[in-house]
Specification:
Structural class: mainly alpha
Distance between the termini: 21 Å
Strand content: 5-15%
Order of helices and strands: HEHHEEHHH
Largest sheet: 3 strands, antiparallel
Helix content: 55-70%
């Protein structure tokens, strides 16, 4: 999967789209003014950039995502593991936990997820 990365502002903008799609672009402008403090021109500039990047489409003034929140989160997480932890998922987990303890339920959930994603 190609790394799909969002800046902080783009992520907040995409959250508004994901939470409200399909959304008329005029309503998106209102939401961005209310939630992000953006002007109309800022919203349309950011929208155009996300269209160019392939995250969203704006057809007949209705905005919808082309990538799900989960797809973007997976890509961004893979990028962090690859770039910061040399691709080591265990290294990421050790750093993420940082000496914290997890509940028995969380440990069981992690074991289940690992079993689901094992090779072979």
């Amino acid at each position: 999967m190609e790394a799909k990365r969002l800046s902080y502002g783009e992520g907040r903008f995409m959250d508004l789209i994901w939470d409200n799609e399909p959304i008329p672009s005029g309503r998106l402008v209102e939401l961005c003014r209310e939630k992000l403090g953006w002007k109309k021109s800022t919203t349309y500039t950011r929208l155009r950039l996300l269209v160019e990047k392939g995250y969203v489409k704006n057809e007949d003034t209705v905005v919808t995502s082309l990538l799900s929140r989960e797809e973007v989160q997976a890509s961004e997480s893979a990028y962090v593991v690859a770039e910061t932890f040399s691709g080591s998922l265990p290294g990421f987990l050790v750093s993420f936990l940082g000496g914290k303890t997890i509940s028995e339920e969380e440990a069981e959930e992690l074991k289940r997820l690992i079993d689901e994603h094992k090779e072979g």
